Amino acid sequence: MIDSNNDIIADIIAWISKTSDLAGGENDLQPDTKLLDLQLLDSLQIMDLVFHLEETFKHPIALEELVAENFETPEMIATMVSRAANTG
Question: Does pTM top 0.85 for this prediction?
Answer without folding.
Answer: yes
